[in-house]
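Ops channel
N.P.: pipeline sanity check, posting one input/output pair.
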């Protein structure tokens, strides 16, 4: 194996726990599994601390009230088994990381909820935002197909708006209003959160990869030109493939 191939093997070893331990991994000829594990854990922790800090924005914004900083959940030794088994960027690892962070944010949180009544909804929002970036192997379809990684979440509070306007004690006033949001990631890795229309929801439910644009327009009883435009918009955000 040439130098470039070995370098690629080392990089993959640090980002994929399964490959790291595989007998087919040439990096094991120059480094032990233990040393690779230590380096991989360090890399994984930095990777996910960065992403938790980036995507747990709303809970992070209220850390001055809650006393909880999302990324701190990844500093303890109890998260090491998740990091040791991590495949960076995978949905499975992201779900384990999110569960760890969410547990830390909601642990003994009665006092926080008393001050921020929508706190647990906020945690669920940030968790969904974080998960949306992690993608599984996406199917290929010539017809419109709902993105299996997109998350459609119902909330009891209107968390679509920014938390910019603070009420008493610096706590934003959010209306208690049921709302449905879609969290998805486009082909370039950009995550978006949208409040879908009823027609958009119907299209996402019906887009199974077997229906043409004409068939979808007929199914939702919507003008063809507007259906085409809406499908294109949903594809750009990553809600449809």
């Amino acid at each position: 194996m040439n130098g470039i191939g070995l370098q690629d093997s080392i990089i993959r070893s640090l980002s994929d726990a399964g490959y790291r331990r595989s007998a087919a991994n040439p990096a094991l000829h120059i480094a032990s599994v233990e040393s690779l594990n230590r380096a991989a854990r360090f890399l994984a922790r930095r990777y996910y601390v960065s992403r938790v800090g980036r995507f747990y924005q709303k809970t992070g914004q209220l850390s001055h009230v809650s006393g909880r900083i999302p990324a701190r959940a990844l500093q303890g030794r109890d998260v090491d088994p998740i990091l040791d088994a991590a495949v960076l960027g995978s949905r499975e690892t992201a779900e384990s990381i999110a569960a760890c962070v969410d547990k830390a944010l909601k642990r003994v949180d009665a006092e926080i909820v008393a001050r921020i009544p929508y706190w647990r909804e906020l945690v669920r929002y940030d968790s969904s935002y974080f998960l949306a970036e992690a993608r599984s192997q996406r199917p290929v379809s010539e017809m419109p197909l709902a993105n299996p990684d997109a998350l459609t979440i119902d909330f009891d509070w209107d968390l679509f708006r920014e938390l910019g306007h603070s009420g008493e004690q610096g706590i934003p006033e959010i209306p208690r209003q049921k709302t449905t949001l879609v969290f998805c990631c486009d082909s370039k890795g950009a995550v978006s959160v949208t409040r879908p229309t009823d027609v958009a929801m119907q299209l996402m439910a019906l887009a199974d990869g077997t229906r043409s644009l004409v068939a979808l327009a007929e199914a939702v009883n919507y003008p063809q030109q507007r259906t085409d435009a809406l499908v294109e918009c949903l594809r750009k955000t990553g809600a449809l493939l």
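N.P.: looks fine end to end. Residues 33-55 form the longest helix (23 residues).
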